[in-house]
Amino acid sequence: MAEQLALVIGGIAGGLLLLLLVGLSCCLWRRLCAILAYEELPGTPAMATTATSSGQGDKLCQMHTRTPSSSPPGVPFVVPPSLRGRDWMPLHSGEWAQAPRDPCLAPELLPHAPSSNLGDTCVVGAINPELYKFSEDKSETDFPAGCLGRLWFSVEYQQEAERLLVGLIKARQLQAPSETCSPLVKLHLLPDERRFLQSKTKRKTSNPQFDEHFVFQVSSKSVTQRVLRLSVYHVDRQRKHQLLGQVLFPLKHETLAGDCRRIIWRDLEAESLEPPSEFGDLQFCLGYNDYLSRLTVVVLRAKGLRLQEDRGIVSVFVRVSLMNHNKFVKCKKTSAVLGSINPVYNETFSFKTDATELDTASLSLTVMQNLEGDKSQQLGRVVVGPYMYTRGRELEHWDQMLSRPKELVKRWHALSRTSEP
Questions:
Q1: 3-class state of residue 52 by DSSP
Q2: 337-338 and 315-324 as β-strands: parallel, antiparallel, unpaired?
């Protein structure tokens, strides 16, 4: 009897506890639904909602139906991101504007479509083709008037092996004496005129593609004193070689720095057919920039020098002096080139000179040979300037410089042994 009574009391207690748990769960569920549900604003019609009945619950958007006369909501709230771009949207000024009613995704979720209102703007993350355009290479299209052709080559110096690697790449727009052109290239490492390397002959083409490699064994001490000469020849039917042009490339420290391969292109230059003068000749450029008041001198090369080879180590440099009324103003000099009667410099100097001083100014370029004991000897000299100091080719060169401002005028001049003032 006592056991039955205990069972009845336990069942009643369990039932009450179960009812209490169910009631508590219902209360919590109602509160949760009230929190998650949006409060319907006063004065607005009901919202029509379209949803798919699929198990994935894939709902793209909802349709809002508002009348234009309905006033903006008075209760401030935050619009969820998925509902932005529809119905009434707040502006920065505090006013409200009506957005399109088309059922669609949020603007930030839509793919980008071109629009006349957007101008040239694009969506973040889209590829802008303008950023991937390379600057056009005009080295094969822009040829100056009277160009004899253009040559591409590469230079690399290996310090440990003491080897100069020259790559002969291609040539373009070669001017052959006949209708067909069969070019080849000879490579000299000046001042050595006897030894040279030669490319294969390309038949019947003015735009040959060589893609050949050559090796010169030269020490690291003398390589910067050498000049690479590439001479382009046309081979006729009798196998005679006719020079089309040449490129002189001095091997400077900055060219060989880094042990890396450099690709270079140069226009061909015609070889001077005039015999050298008694003491040799010097080629240089003159230019004057009236805006900057700069007088520019580019010392290019010399030829046919009469060196004193019995005076020890032979090295030659050029001294450039600016004079005014035969008075010294400023002096600069090139680097010294060892053991060559045809040295190549390609060095540029500039002098600050007012335009009013050009009628009384002159330039003196003197070729000097280094001797033992830090002494030097004059090999030849040329003076260019106005009518007050010069005549002939030197005066013509000066006048051409003044008549063609901001351009470099190039000429050969014969050296003389006159004493300096």
A1: coil
A2: antiparallel
Question: Among all chains, which residue has been given the structure tokens 């100069």?
Answer: 164
Q: Count CB atoms within 10 A of the CB of residue 391.
A: 8
Q: Are 382 and 392 in contact (CB under 8 A)?
A: no
Task: Report the DSSP beta bridge partners of residue 406.
Answer: none
| SS3 of residue 30 by DSSP | helix
On whether the CB atoms of residues 185 and 202 are closer than 8 A, the answer is no
Average pLDDT over residues 246-254: 81
Chain-centre distance for alpha carbon 154: 18
- In the chain, the N- to C-terminal Cα span, in Å, equals 148
Are the C-beta atoms of 382 and 420 separated by less than 8 Å? no
DSSP summary character for residue 89:
E
Instruction: Tell the burial category of 373 from Cβ atoms under 10 Å away from its Cβ (0-12, 13-18, 19+).
Output: exposed
pLDDT one-digit tens code per residue, 350-380: 999 998 999 999 999 999 988 776 778 889 9
**Strand, helix or coil for residue 345:** strand
Return the ∠ at Cα 250 (arms to 246 and 256), rounded to 5°.
Answer: 125
DSSP helix/strand/coil, 65? coil
Question: Is the distance from CB of 176 to CB of 198 less than 8 angstroms?
Answer: no
pTM for this structure?
0.48
- Maximum separation of any 2 CA atoms in the chain, in Å: 150
- Give the β-pairing of 361-371 and 227-235: unpaired
C-alpha–C-alpha distance, residues 414 and 52, integer Å: 98
What's the rounded Cα separation, in Å, for the pair 411 and 277? 14
Q: Of 69, 64, 128, 76, nearest to 100 (Cα)?
A: 64
Q: Please name the helix (run of DSSP H) or strand (run of DSSP E) that holds residue 367, with its range, or none.
A: strand 361-371
Span 99-150, pLDDT tens digits = 555 444 444 444 444 444 444 445 555 666 655 555 555 666 677 777 888 9
User: Burial, 130: exposed, middle or buried (Cβ in 10 Å; 0-12, 13-18, 19+)?
Assistant: exposed
Confidence of residue 66 (pLDDT cuts 50, 70, 90): very low
The DSSP string of 222-254 is TGGG-EEEEEEEEE-TT--EEEEEEEEEE--HH
Going 238 to 243 to 244 to 248, the CA torsion angle's sign is positive
User: What is the full DSSP assignment across 131-164?
Assistant: GGPPPP--TTT---TT---EEEEEEEEETTTTEE
One-character DSSP codes across 282-336: EEEEEEEETTTTEEEEEEEEEES----TTSSS-EEEEEEEEEETTEEEEEEE---
